[in-house]
Amino acid sequence: MKAAYLTRRAGPEGLEIGNLPQPRPGQGEVLVDVRCAAITPTEFNWFPTFRTRNGHPRPFPIVLGHEFSGVIAAVGDAESASKVGDAVYGMNDWFADGAQAEYCVAPATAVASKPRTLDHQKAAVVPISALTAWQGLFEHCGMKAGERVLIHGGAGGVGIFAVQSAHWRGAQVIATASSLNLEFVRSIGADEVIDYKTTRFERHARDIDVVFDVVGGETLVRSWSVLRPGGRVVTIAAQSEAVSDQRVREAFFIVEPNRTQLVEIARLLDAGSIRPFVEAVFPLAEARDAYACAKRGGMRGKIALQVEVGETP
Hints:
The structure is a single chain. 25% of the residues lie in helices and 26% in strands. It is built from nine helices and 14 strands. The strands form three sheets. Strands 3, 4, 5, 6, 7, 13 and 14 form a seven-stranded mixed beta sheet that branches. The protein has a five-stranded parallel beta sheet with strand order 10-9-8-11-12, with helices on both faces. It has a two-stranded antiparallel sheet with strand order 1-2.
């Protein structure tokens, strides 16, 4: 199968395009004929990208990209909820090869039927970002209707879904964004948008019930001051995992695959309650260029890699 992969520890400049053996699904897994995959630029810095669960080096070649949209090509056992030919979207194991290839393997519990109203390009950019927003707001913070929520990075891949999900649940949404994206973030559900480049958010955000942070560092440190008594913070900023501050460690989480939540997210997408945004689409052969585009920043949503040319919805 064609794939984009690393043969050494490197950044996007180390990506190669070539042929790799097609994987086979094991017990509890499905084989996905990948139509589109999404990219996450920080993946080159993740522990699971180059290490196994027990800390040993992962063998090369390594395929990146852990969210996708495609069609079930095979199932590892008859108990799978997905059947051959089903159009699905989902995630796969952080410690295994990803979806920037013509085929990938994923746990059967980590995929769900693709939203009917989305093509594969739009569906591919949903799973990680939408699940992160869902789990951060509703599971970790228990956000309720009527609460005041501050979302940092409202125009980014995760922020877009956090803003829309909080708005859908009935929260009062305040978000930070650059000047170019202020109106965009308002259009997807924010009641107030703060230009983080010109204004310190704590001057305007007060009595916040939930802070959803994707930035970390100084932004996270300053966020504690805007909370009302009983307020909660959740962060996905990677550097937060290693800090000694206990409250930061407790606020940090990593998204987990969840079929049930993917089904609910698909329902909201098909109803038009939330929307995905694709900044750009690159063919698999131009994976390096796709990462270079993502590195420039200022995007609205994520970048998709078109794996199969001429794919159908």
